[in-house]
Amino acid sequence: MKILFFDTKPYDREAFDSTLGEFENVEITYLDAEINPQTARLAKGYDAVCLFVAADVCENTLAALGECGVKLVLMRCAGFNNVNMDAAKKFGITVMRVPSYSPEAISEHALALAFAVNRHIHKAYIKVRENNFSLMGLTGMNFYGKTAGIIGTGKIGASMCRACHGLGMKVIAYDKYPNPSLDFVTYLPLDEVLSKSDLISLHCPLTDETYHMIDFSAIEKMKDNVILINTSRGALIDTNDLIRGIRAHKFAGVGLDVYEEEGDFVFENLEDDILSSSVTARLLSFPNVIVTSHQGFFTKEALAAISRTTLENAVSFERGAPIKENIVI
Ligand code: NAI
Q: For residue 184, with 0-12 CB atoms within 10 Å meaning exposed, 13-18 middle and 19 or more buried, which class applies?
């Protein structure tokens, strides 16, 4: 099976190369280029393409892949909200993903953001490097004894619930389908989770229903000095409303691994460029906001699991028995 990988970085190649030996008859070609309707044509002669989370898998791209005879899109990630599912169906292309690779990779990053904004680690690091040993502006709060509100308690949210419970927090949650294994969690309606939590962490997928679920009216319901963490998808939060809330001094801290405009920047080094978006620039200007560039998944364990499952997906498809739970469409 010949697979063309788009938008690869050295760490992708390293992870896949070290797993490839376990799979016979799989050939990989790595490209730096992102996929679009033009570059998709490079897939002629390949059985499958392998794409990452920010790839814009629109109808024209899928049409071009279909014309090249590609039958399989392998998403080397869990999220698939950028894939036009109707178009994939129309062009007879199967889409497979890696639904679970290491929930702890993401929940630990959510915790890292929560700790960092709470104790102002981003500011403390810079201050001490500048010989400023003053503690002014660095007051945080104990998480112990406070309330964590987890929105979405699937694989990652459940891991976050366990971590917060381990810290001695009271854990409340909102999910359309409560997770019965979390017997220490109290499920409440969304508004109550918003109004009772000291730390709110988002872990539900982006759907029509969850789009902008955190808008200004949701922010108004939150406690003053709440900490808000989003490692799920940027568009769960209305960024302009978030900025309004930050300006109204609602938040002790905001930690974002994902944000609405990340598609334009994510995984790229733009240090010599001028940001085209004033919304992201404004977000970056606040002292109580930490933004990371979609790195929640980025641990050695997660990369190894992603490459193994992606190649298992490819081989299972070739054998005519694609792994059912990994099929998106
Ligand atoms: P999952 O499918 O195991 O859990 C999602 C949970 O959200 C489920 O329990 C579901 O019932 C719940 N849910 C669905 N619609 C809801 C709604 N309207 N309101 C409340 N809850 C709702 O997914 P998993 O693996 O836990 O991933 C969660 C999200 O994390 C993914 O959708 C993805 O967006 C994000 N993610 C972020 C990564 C990063 O690097 N920052 C990496 C991997 C995933």
A: exposed
Which residue CA neighbors atom 9 of ligand 1 most closely? 154
pLDDT of 266 over the 90 cut: no
Q: How distant, in Å, are the alpha carbons of 183, 242, 250, 282, 301 from that of 246? A: 34, 6, 6, 11, 35
- Ligand 1 pocket by Cβ (under 6 Å): 78-79, 100, 103, 106, 151-157, 174-177, 203-207, 209-210, 231-233, 257-258, 294, 296-297
Strands 27-30 and 48-51 turn out to be: unpaired
What domains are there in the chain, each with its CATH number? Answer: 2-101+299-326 (3.40.50.720), 103-291 (3.40.50.720)
Residue 321 pLDDT class (50, 70, 90 cuts): very high
Active site amino acids: 233, 262, 294
* 257 contact partners, CB below 8 Å, separation of at least 6: 109, 110, 113, 230, 231, 291, 292, 293, 294, 295, 296
pLDDT of residue 276: 82
Who's near 314: CB < 8 A, 6+ residues apart? 1, 3, 23, 26, 48, 50, 72, 74, 96
Determine the residue of 107, 203, 256 to mutate for testing ligand 1's pocket, defined as the one with the most ligand atoms within 8 A of the Cβ atom: 203
| Distance, CA of 122 to CA of 289 (rounded, Å) | 9
* Contact assessment for residue 256 and residue 230, using Cβ atoms and an 8 Å cutoff: yes
Predicted confidence (pLDDT) per residue in 125-158, tens digit = 999 999 999 999 999 999 999 999 999 999 999 9
Count the Cβ atoms, other than its own, within 10 Å of residue 209.
9
**Separation of alpha carbons 20 and 8, rounded Å:** 15
State in Å: Cα 272 to ligand 1 middle: 34
State how far the Cα of 117 lies from the Cα of 288, in Å rounded to an integer: 6
In one-letter notation, the amino acid at residue 13 is: R
